[in-house]
Specification:
The chain has helices spanning 49-77, 96-100, 160-164, 185-189, 211-216, 266-292, 306-323, 327-344, 352-365, 371-398, 406-409; strands spanning 3-13, 16-23, 79-91, 107-111, 114-115, 118-119, 127-128, 140-145, 148-153, 167-172, 175-180, 196-200, 203-204, 223-229, 232-238, 253-257, 259-263. By secondary structure, it is an alpha+beta fold. Among the domains are: 1-30, no CATH class; 82-171, Pdz3 Domain; 175-257, Roll (Pdz3 Domain), CATH 2.30.42.10. The strands form 4 sheets. Strands 11, 12, 13, 14, 15 and 16 form a 6-stranded antiparallel sheet that branches. Strands 3, 6, 7, 10 and 17 form a 5-stranded antiparallel sheet that branches. Strands 5-4-8-9 form a 4-stranded antiparallel sheet, with no helix packed on it. The longest helix is centred in the N-terminal third of the chain and has 29 residues, at 49-77. The protein is elongated, with a radius of gyration of 28 Å. The model has no long low-confidence stretch (mean pLDDT 84).
């Protein structure tokens, strides 16, 4: 238990010493022969190349597997699913929607006063954690038709699933304005936080036509934005800036997806756990390229040490206690596990990836690398990593860290 130096040897079992160590953070395991100069029988270095490589990969592989399970748990516990309203493309003749009077190009807003929301991601089905309850006595469906809200009466109770059966639609109104910069074109036009962007000129904002991509086509040109504020439709003229201030964007708005709490069944959650782990690992690998290309700011890709991680964990625990939702804890734990998996496989001395690199060199040369030289390289690498850890820890202590706003992510 803990990290060296050793305080006491507790006992020995099956050739393994169990010890109590001074630094009380987790625990560590040291195999016989990890020291590059130890080639005694049964030691790590005396094993075959495949055995050593398998041993080195096993740790990161378990971290990745744990990340998959934790991501899956976050999807089953209740996660913020991106949602929009259905814009009708077509209606089957004998469907409930056709009987109600819903037509192509209608935008379905609510059913008996409860918002009609669908997944903004095609073929991504989920169960709502809390279903919105409308007022059955209203007996109506509200749609946007030709720029006006139209109420369509119902002659019998209808559920959302029944209403949308036989309806082909695109999800829209999934882009929400979360903040507006001072003196920006958006502020001057009257755009406010909480507005939902529907269209730019005649282009409807959707997953296929995201707002930032549509705006890029009209820099320096006046465009007409149609947005929904509460139950009111507004049209505003705004001119996106060609050279906006850093961090503001051409309109001067921060946007985020409209979301609602949802859950996934176990098998689908497990698959999404695999995808999320893979996506995170790919993001980490792409970070250097993204930094060089200016796609992200250096401040957004800083390293975090034990102090910063402890602060993030504290924030996740607080959010879980405040909301009763386990999503923050499961999701942060999953990200940390995935980060450990990819970090340990980096080809740096003293890490598993560095030792794998020496095994690859050994395989290409057909003979062992000089054990003393390899041991010295790992020692220098270890000291450099410890120095980096100290620097990052000092920065985490002396600099105010921006935490994760779990409450906003969860829409609470």
């Amino acid at each position: 238990m803990g990290y060296p130096p050793r305080l006491a040897k507790l006992f020995r079992y099956d050739g393994t010493d169990f010890t109590l160590n001074l630094i009380p953070f987790g625990g560590f395991a040291r195999m016989k022969g990890e020291d590059a100069t130890d080639m005694s029988p049964g030691s790590f270095n005396a094993a075959s190349r495949w055995a050593r490589a398998g041993t080195l990969v096993a740790g990161p592989a378990m971290n990745a597997l744990l990340a998959i399970v934790l991501f899956a748990a976050s999807f089953m516990a209740g996660f913020p699913a991106v949602v929009g309203h259905p814009q009708v493309i077509g209606v089957e003749a004998n469907s409930t929607a056709a009987a109600v009077g819903i037509k192509a190009n209608d935008l379905i807003l609510d059913l008996n006063g409860a918002p009609v929301r669908v997944s903004a991601i095609p073929d991504f089905k989920y169960d709502l954690l809390h279903k919105a309850q409308g007022n059955p006595s209203l007996a109506r469906v509200t749609v946007l038709r030709d720029g006006k809200n139209v109420d369509l009466p119902l002659d019998h109770p209808v559920s959302q699933d029944e209403l949308l059966k036989g309806v082909n639609f695109n999800p829209v109104l999934a882009t929400e304005v979360t903040a507006v910069a001072k003196n920006s074109p958006a502020q001057q036009a009257g755009i406010q936080g909480g507005d939902f962007i529907y269209s730019v000129n005649d282009t409807i904002v959707s997953e296929d036509n995201p707002l930032n991509e549509v705006i890029k086509l009209h820099l320096g040109q006046q465009v007409k934005l149609t947005l929904l504020r509460g139950n009111q439709w507004l049209t505003m003229n705004v001119t996106p800036r060609i050279n906006p201030p850093a961090g503001e964007g051409s309109l001067g708005v921060e946007i985020g997806p409209s979301s609602i709490l949802a859950t996934l069944p176990p098998l689908r959650a497990l698959w999404e756990g695999v995808r999320s782990t893979g996506d995170y690992i790919m993001l980490v690998l792409q970070l250097p390229i993204m930094l060089l290309a200016g796609q992200i700011k250096p401040a957004d890709a800083q390293l975090t040490g034990p102090v910063g991680i402890a602060q993030m964990v504290g924030g996740a625990v607080t959010a879980t206690m405040d909301t009763g939702l386990w999503f923050p804890i499961w999701r942060l734990s999953a990200v940390l596990s995935a980060a450990l998996a990819i970090t340990n496989l980096l080809p740096l001395p003293a890490l598993d990836g560095g030792r794998l690199l020496f095994i690859l060199v050994e395989a290409l040369r057909g003979r062992l690398v000089n054990p003393e030289r390899e041991g010295m390289i790992h020692m220098v690498g270890f000291m450099l990593l410890i120095g980096l850890l100290v620097l990052v820890t000092v920065r985490d202590i002396t600099t105010a860290q921006q935490g994760i706003d779990w409450i906003s992510i969860l829409g609470q």
